[in-house]
Design a protein that fits this description.
single chain, mainly alpha, two-stranded antiparallel ribbon, globular, GT87, transferase, transmembrane, membrane
Length: 444
């Protein structure tokens, strides 16, 4: 077992590579070789929902000027009816750059899928290595469950997952650095993550509170300067990355944010709003207004409660559980946001590895995720084919939507009280309390 544990990071990387191969082959079922004059695979239009081989990567080959190799945002914008044009994409700037890089050697959507997969793979392999170092055998949840196969190349999630895990890895393992230094480096990584897919930015608050409170252990007083430095490093990183795009093409840069703000919680979003609130409202305009009000309000409330509970834990036990608070905040975001795409499971799985929560609940959540990840596309197919979905794909989709929602509520609570999983050095007891675990991983 000692030899297996010593080589576990390498084993995790190999398993991740195999899962990514399966992920690519799964999505490639929707690829050419018969293409339209615009490089669109005929198989994609015919089978993407029926065979559940849809990917945003293939879809966005057309419609965002990716096929024309236009550098993102600089000459783009948004029309009055909410359509993006001129190279602007609906994601933060670094994801746009990754999309552009994957398109450079591509002349059709099949090649775009292939080169994008090559571009994204190293991020997954590095994430697997870090998670194996931090979480031991629990890394199998990332490298050997269906999520990586279903969603590895569904969208551009793997780089942002890497940044979030890397931030935690730095704080946990760089023991020769001070807490403040680790926090600042982690904040830079989270800032980069925000420029990929936004969500790592929410972790800056608990990280800053962690650095603030650990200052009392390291310096004998609250480290306000360190906490401010953490927040400042994240903000400076985001500004430095976004500023060139905003200066070179403000309208194209701004359009990506406007697109997201205009997006409705409709049938494509898999949210509790569409499946729970809309059926109870007669006027869709009123429904949209309620969602625009309730979604951000409840997200911010969930953030505040998680941060406050973390502060209560700190006062009771002496260490601020920033990883658990971050995980709970992510649950609140996923639950109440108006969009809950299936691939967001990749955001959550690292916290299943890093925080000790019951395996049974993890398994139930992953089953619900599979239900939505497969059911929703079959549901779209049934609707398009004129098949009544109520007894089949619609039921599976609703099981996925409400199963995930229930899981997020449960994990919101459990993450806040969970202990931190022992890292590779095994310096923490497997039965350590949240306080003991966080203390041992954060001692200078």
């Amino acid at each position: 077992m000692t030899a297996v544990r010593r080589h576990l990071p390498l084993i995790a990387v190999v398993l991740a590579a195999f899962s990514l191969l399966l992920a690519y082959l799964n999505k490639a079922r929707c690829a050419g070789p018969v293409f339209s004059e615009f490089g669109r695979s005929e198989n994609f239009d015919l089978y993407k929902n029926q065979l559940v081989c849809y990917s945003d990567i293939q879809l966005l080959w057309l419609g965002r000027d990716i096929d024309r190799h236009v550098f993102p945002f600089i000459e783009g914008g948004i029309t009055p009816d909410g359509r993006l044009f001129g190279g602007t994409v609906e994601y933060p700037v670094l994801s746009g750059v990754l999309m552009w890089l994957g398109a450079i050697p591509s002349s059709n959507d099949a090649e775009f899928l292939f080169y994008s997969a090559l571009l994204l793979t190293p991020f997954a392999l590095l994430t697997a290595w870090m998670l194996a170092k931090l979480g031991g055998h629990r890394v199998l949840l990332f490298v050997a469950t269906p999520a990586l196969i279903l969603y590895g190349f569904h969208n551009w999630e793997l780089p942002v997952v890497f940044t979030a895990v890397a931030a935690i890895y730095v704080v946990t393992t760089a023991q020769t650095w001070s807490i403040r230094t680790r926090g600042i480096v982690a904040a830079v990584l989270l800032g980069i993550g925000l420029c990929l897919k936004l969500y790592p930015g929410i972790f800056v608050l608990p990280l800053a509170l962690y650095v603030l409170t650990e200052g009392k252990r390291e310096r004998g007083h609250f480290d306000f300067r360190g906490a401010i430095s953490v927040a400042g490093a994240a903000v400076a990183t985001v500004v430095a990355i976004n500023a060139p795009f905003a200066i070179a093409g403000f309208e194209g840069w701004r359009a990506s944010f406007e697109f997201q703000s205009l997006r409705r919680a409709d049938i494509t979003t898999n949210s509790i709003w569409y499946w729970g609130l809309l059926p109870r409202m007669e006027d869709e305009t009123v429904y949209d207004a309620w969602v625009e009000l309730l979604s951000p309000a409840l997200i911010l409330a969930s953030f505040a409660v998680a941060a406050a509970v973390g502060w209560w834990i700190y006062h009771r036990h002496g260490t601020y559980p920033w990883v658990g608070v971050s995980a709970a905040m992510l649950c609140g975001f996923l639950l109440f946001h108006k969009v809950h795409s299936p691939q967001f499971a990749l955001w959550l799985i690292p916290f299943f590895i890093l925080l000790r929560v019951p395996w049974q609940l993890i398994g139930a959540y992953l089953l619900a995720d599979i239900a939505i990840g497969i059911g929703v596309f079959r549901y779209f197919y049934d609707l398009g084919a004129g098949i009544d979905p109520s007894g089949g794909s619609e039921l599976v989709t609703q099981v996925g939507v409400w199963g995930r929602a229930a899981g997020l509520v449960v994990f919101y609570v459990l993450f806040l009280r969970a202990s931190y999983v022992p890292d590779e050095s095994n310096t923490m007891s497997r039965d350590a309390s949240p306080v003991d675990a966080y203390t041992k991983t954060s001692s200078p």
